[in-house]
Amino acid sequence: MKTIRLKNKQIDYPILIGSNLYKDIGKICKKYLEKNRVFIVCDINVYNLYRNEIHNSFKKTKIECIFIPIAVSEKRKNINTVASLSSKIIAHSVDRKDTIIALGGGILGDIVGFTASIILRGINYIQLPTTLLSQVDSSVGGKTGVNNIYGKNLLGSFYQPQLVIIDTNVLKTLPKRELLAGYAEIIKYGIIKDTKFFQWLQKNGKKVIEGNTNARIYAIYRSCINKSQIVEADEKEHGIRALLNLGHTFGHAIESLNNYKKNIIHGEAVSIGIIIATKLSYVEGHINKITCDKIINHFVEIGLKISLPKNLKKIAPKKFISEMIKDKKTVNKEITLILIKRIGEAFIQKKYSHNKLIKLFTEITT
Ligand code: NAD
Ligand code: MG
After folding, report:
1. Which residue of 93, 221, 237, 280 has the fewest C-beta atoms within 10 A of its own C-beta?
2. E strand intervals along the chain
3. What is the pLDDT of residues 53-76, one digit of tens each?
4. CB under 6 Å to ligand 1: residues?
5. What is the pTM of this model?
6. CA of residue 265 to ligand 1 center, whole Å
């Protein structure tokens, strides 16, 4: 098992990464609990697959599990779900010594983290991410939240977990499409700050998708180290944390314009978004054609999505840009973009003129 400690003046918690950890999950969690009970809020699909294993492990340590399975989707990732989930938890006379465990992918983790942050003004929670995307990104760093009718993740909080436990075994039941979606967030770290990791992925990326345990553990470990370093330096996203949003301003607009329909899932929107950011970096002269092609070729080789689906290709660039303005990084209606200087270095480009963006966007998407 590998351990990373996310630590700065305000934050300090471990991220445990290994395979076959669920059989000992009770023992691992016990020292982080202040009571002999836990609320395990889980994605209903994950509940059906892993409930027994987890229940048995907690039983061995004499910890009571209250399972709360919920159905999750981007459409259900909203304040109503947070309200009904809070009521289910509060109904058990919850107090500040209770702990909630989030068992599921990024949607579940974001909802549960946000709920934990507001119940009694904040109770402890533990992340047990079960998708590749949540293991390499969303379970680490304490961004929680839900969507709002005006856009994605517009309601939320920064609220750190007590512990993150990543078991690569659960990836065996994850559909390939979801694995590829998670890979988009892995390659993101290589592009924004870790050249050597990008090179490692060029050689080993396929193994990560195909199910090689060591390759998976290494890719997750390296991703979590990169994410931790950024969060340690800038928890509340006043500066460099925004780099993690490479491809996301485009990605969120894609998801929103697509009405969160399942023909494009979050990681796929991010994948297309990173390609748009790469092309934009090229047409703006920040990277050369060789670098641009190197990134695109890797995406194609792994099988990631690189272009907009048909239904969105018809959308006018103007509409796209006005959707992008809803991004949380936007200040005074000026869009902030994350662009690429070289593989291993991204930068924040502020105050992007709409007209220029519309022109460039028309150039690279048609
Ligand atoms: P998800 O939570 O929808 O999970 C994907 C699908 O896989 C679901 O159908 C789920 O039921 C199923 N599933 C989960 N684990 C499984 C397993 N082990 N075996 C079989 N099926 C399983 O999607 P996601 O990609 O994990 O998360 C996307 C969300 O994460 C988005 O809402 C995005 O905004 C958010 N996100 C948040 C952060 C953050 O920092 N908080 C970062 C990146 C993404
Ligand atoms: Mg993301």
Report:
1. 93
2. 2-7, 12-18, 37-43, 64-70, 99-104, 124-129, 143-148, 151-158, 163-167, 335-342, 345-352
3. 999 999 999 999 999 999 999 999
4. 43, 45-46, 49, 72, 74, 77, 104-108, 110, 130-131, 133-134, 137-138, 141, 143, 153, 170, 173-174, 178, 181, 266-267
5. 0.96
6. 9
